[in-house]
Every structure is written in C-alpha cells, then in structure tokens.
Amino acid sequence: MQEKTWDYNYSKGEKMKKLIAILLSLMLVFTFAACGDKEEAEEPADTQETAEEVQEETAETEEPEQETETADVKKDNMVDPSEVPLRGDEPPKGNDTSSRGIPELKDVLTYDDGDLMVLVNKYHGVTADYEPTDMVVMDNSLTTWENIRLKKVAYDAYVKMQQDAAAKGFNLKVCSGYRTYDGQQQLFYNALGVGEEYAHMSSAYPGRSEHHTGLAVDITSASMGWGLTQDFADYPDGKWLYEHCHEYGFILRYLKGSEDITGYKYEPWHFRYVGVEVATEIMEKGITLEEYLGEA
Ligand SMILES: [Zn+2]
Question: How far is CA 178 from the centre of its chain?
C-alpha cells in the first residue's frame, strides 16, 4: 500500500512535471509565434523602405538627365518654369481663378546675369524676386513720376537721346521704367478691369514684363499731353525717336503689324535698350527682338 502510495505520489509528481513541461512548451510556442507575428508585421515596413529607396534612386537617376537637357539650351540663370513657383500663378484675390488665357512659360530667369539681350515676354519670364543689377534712379527732371529706375547703361543712353531731342525742341519725359513684380501685377489686374482682351494686348502679366528688366522705357511728351497715344509716331518728336533711337542703342519694341509676334498692340512709346550695334540692325531690318533672337 505504501509502495502504491509512493507510486501514486511518484506518478502524481511526474504528472506535475509533465504539466509544467507542457505549459513551458506552450509558452515557448506562444513566444515564438509572437516573435513571428512581430517579424511579419515589420516585414512590410522593410519592403516599403526598399520601395522608397528604389523610388529615390529612380529620382536621382532622372534628375541629371533633366539637367543635361537644360544645360544644352539654357543659361545658368534660366530654369524650367515648373521648378519655380511664380506668385502670379496664384489666383488673384477677389478675381476668378481661371487662367485668363495666360500662355504657359517656356523658361524663367532667376537672376540678372548682365546680358543686354535678355528676352522677357509672354513666354519667357522672370521670377518675382528677379532684380536687375546696376540700377540707378533717374533724374526727376527727366520723368513724370519721381524715382523711376533704370539700368545705368540704359539710363546713360537715354540721357543722351533726351538731350539731343531737347536740342531739336522736343519735350520728352519717361513715364515708366523699371517695374517690380508687384507693381506689374497691380497694372495687369487694373487692365483686366477694362477687359480681358485689352489686358492681354496692352499689359504684361507679372513676371513677364520687359519693364522688369530695367532696360525698357515708356516715353511720353508735351505733344501727347503727357499721355501715351498710338499716333505718337505721326508727331515730329515720335517720328524723330523712331528714326534715331537706334543711334543711342534703343529699339521700338512693339511694332505695328508685329502684334502676333510680340503679343502686344502697337506701342510707339515703348523703347528697349539693346546697345547701338544690335539696335541698328533691328531697326534697319524693321524686325522685332523676338525675330532677331530667333524666338518668334
Ligand atoms: Zn512699356
């Protein structure tokens, strides 16, 4: 009986050991299973990282190709418009958000590299913070508004032209020179108030005005009553300017009959400095800056 009791006790002890062993096994299995779950949960994250890395690598591979393309045809300060957020692309406050027929830009200049042949028009723009270098404030006696600014090279040429015009008895003044992005934005949206077609033919979209280069002037006169009228070229002073502007390095920028090329109506008062040599060729041929540059 005692033996039996011992057996019983022994067998009871064995059963306990087996139970503990089973419990331990279960715990181990559960622990491994949990680790497995954890690994499985982490796996997609690893895959995602790899996918991101691949994406990054792809982007890195694509980028130099774009740069090479850009370097072939563009200058250091010229970038693809998609790379530059233009403030003018934001819808104007209080106006509707349609594109208003504003064409897409081909490129955008980020800074002034001093090139006198800089082309800014409906398709070639400048960034909002583009600032022409070597600027001077015009003498107020030569302007209808105070503190009109120009690039020095254009200003010096204008002073000579103005003095020679004055010697002929013509009374000319500059009513517009350098314009900032914000100033141009204001002008454009004022023009929109008159009408969309009028705005597009008479006023530049901000970042696309030649006035932003500091190389353009609008010239008014006593003969025009200090306004700007399209018959200016019929006036003796307007005629003289048209015939002699190239001698000072200026061209008449928006010609009659070239509206399709320049994108603007005829403006006998808007002159652009390009230097005597180029101005002489352009005025003698009667062509636009776009045609001269092969950008028509
Ligand atoms: Zn102008």
Answer: 17
Residue 69 CA, ligand 1 centroid: distance in Å = 34
User: Cα(81) to centroid of ligand 1, in Å?
Assistant: 24
Is the dihedral angle over the CA atoms 217, 223, 227, 230 positive or is it negative?
negative
Please check whether residues 58 and 152 belong to one and the same domain: no
Which structure tokens are listed for 110? Answer: 């980020």
Tokens found for residue 191: 């023009």
pLDDT per position as a tens digit, 193-233: 888 888 889 999 999 999 999 999 999 999 999 999 999 99
pLDDT digits (tens, 9 = 90+) for 124-162: 999 999 999 999 999 999 999 999 999 999 999 999 999
Q: Evaluate whether 77 touches 111 at the Cβ level (below 8 Å).
A: yes
Dist. CA 230 → ligand 1 center (Å): 13
Structural domains in the chain (count): 2
Closest CA to 266 of 239, 231, 292: 231
| Residue 8 CA to its chain's centroid (Å) | 94
Cβ atoms 176, 147 nearer than 8 A? no
State which residues form the domain around 43. Answer: 1-73
**267 catalytic, yes or no?**
yes
**Active-site pick, 14, 62, 267, 281:** 267
